[in-house]
Amino acid sequence: MIPSAVLATAVQQEGSFFFPVQASTNAARVDDIYYFIFWVSLVAFIAICAATAWFAFRYRRSRVGMVPEDSPHHSTAIEIVWSVVPAVLMVAMFWYGFVDYVDRRTMPEDAMRIDVSAQKWAWSFRYPNGAQVPGVLGTIGDNQDPTWSKSGLHVPPNEPVVFRIMSNDVLHSFSVPSMRVKMDAVPGRYTYAWFEAMTPGVYDLYCTEYCGQQHSQMLSKVIVHPSRADYDSWVASQVIEKEPSIAYGEYLYNLKGCVACHSVDGNVIVGPSFLGSYGSERNLADGGTVTIDENYIRQSILDPMSQIALKPDGGNYIGVMPAFQGQVDDVDLAALIEFIKAQNTQD
């Protein structure tokens, strides 16, 4: 479980008008660069608008009795001012931004590494001890764990952590605003990001690259533990035995992102609900029917486009589910089937 003190800290944290709380060692520098660019731009904008308004008023055509005034054809001093001052400011913006960019793109040596996987529409995280944890926990009878004790991205405090980021389907983007980190998850390659968290607490994690129908629901949390010892204890508790059981099936239901599309309470999200589905008849988009048995579930996981179901209202479910061929083995499939069967026996 996550200590209540950590959750209390998260509630108390407040950011500025522009940014959430500064929770990483890099956050202050990012904010300083932003404010420098913002205030320079604002002052320049006001000065230009004020000068435009003044000249428009001062030299308006309707001015009675206006006599054209002689104007200088050239002013070296003015040209130096409006060329050199902006150039110095632009170089300063580039330099400070470039220094921070290089720092963000240089992964610290010997830092802990956590693998971040993205797929429509869920996150999952793999830790150095092999434990895999879903981004959001959906459980039987309770669709979210309020303490984030079994889900989310967990990190120790005051220690750099490198994230190896990958996507299983389309472009996603790993974004933790409080840590001032954002990096695309690109299919077919690894991308990397890192931060060093300072303050224990719970922080928002978003996908900030539009990735389809449930993009806005692709959310998770970053949990910064109060100490390295507390983090190590939590990671050790997340190793789950791989066996064809309901418990392992529920774990995979969350880890593989099934929770993002298939509810266990009867609500239709993107795909059919698992509640009471096993053993029932299902109408297919091609006009046929099929009994939802173990073979049908297996086929639907490995090749979901082969048997697209009809909605209760007669429409088709959108064919967006990725194929899990090669991503799950026979034990995983058996566990998921047991989990789906269990949804017929809920109270």
SSE order and pairing:
Elements: H1 4-12, H2 27-58, H3 76-105, E1 112-119, E2 122-126, E3 132-134, E4 153-155, E5 160-167, E6 172-176, E7 181-185, E8 191-196, E9 201-207, E10 219-224, H4 228-236, H5 246-255, E11 281-283, E12 289-291, H6 294-302, H7 330-342
Parallel strand pairs: 1-5, 4-10
Antiparallel strand pairs: 1-2, 2-3, 5-8, 6-7, 6-9, 9-10, 11-12
Architecture overview:
The chain is an alpha+beta fold. Among the domains are: about 110-235, Sandwich (Immunoglobulin-like), CATH 2.60.40; about 245-340, Cytochrome Bc1 Complex, Chain D, domain 2, CATH 1.10.760. Helix content is about 30%, strand content about 20%. The chain has helices at about 5-10, 25-60, 75-105, 230-235, 245-255, 295-300, 330-340, and strands at about 110-120, 120-125, 130-135, 155, 160-165, 170-175, 180-185, 190-195, 200-205, 220-225, 280-285, 290. The strands form 3 sheets. Strands 3-2-1-5-8 form a 5-stranded mixed beta sheet, with helices on one face. The protein has a 5-stranded mixed beta sheet with strand order 4-10-9-6-7. Helix 2 (about 25-60) packs antiparallel against helix 3 (about 75-105) and helix 5 crosses helix 7 (about 330-340). The chain is elongated. The model is unreliable at about 5-10 and about 140-145 (pLDDT under 50).
